[in-house]
Design brief:
The radius of gyration is 13 Å and the shape is globular. It is built from six helices and two strands; from the N terminus they run βαααααβα. The longest helix is centred in the middle third of the chain and has 11 residues. The protein has a two-stranded antiparallel sheet with strand order 1-2. By secondary structure, the protein is mainly α. It has a single domain, classed as lambda repressor-like DNA-binding domains (434 Repressor (Amino-terminal Domain)).
Length: about 70
């Protein structure tokens, strides 16, 4: 499972979710989904914004984790 690690990056940079919310220019609903990894798609435009605002690369934004559902199928 791939997830965004935005909260971790914010913590490292001593910024709040509100700080990022204001800079992203998204609706609160879309921003909340993005932060909570409750979305199945992310626009490239939003990825670019995240990278520029957080001064990181797309590689820094994502982490791959084992999916517990996959282990049950094995």
């Amino acid at each position: 499972m791939i997830r965004l690690k935005v909260l971790e990056l914010l913590k490292e940079k001593n910024h709040t979710k509100y700080w990022l919310f204001i800079r992203m220019g998204l609706s609160y609903r879309n921003f909340d989904r993005l932060i909570k990894n409750d979305t199945s798609a992310i626009r490239f435009e939003n990825l670019e914004k995240l990278c520029r605002i957080l001064e990181c690369t797309p590689n820094d934004l994502f982490v791959i984790e084992d999916d517990p559902d996959d282990e049950e199928l094995s």
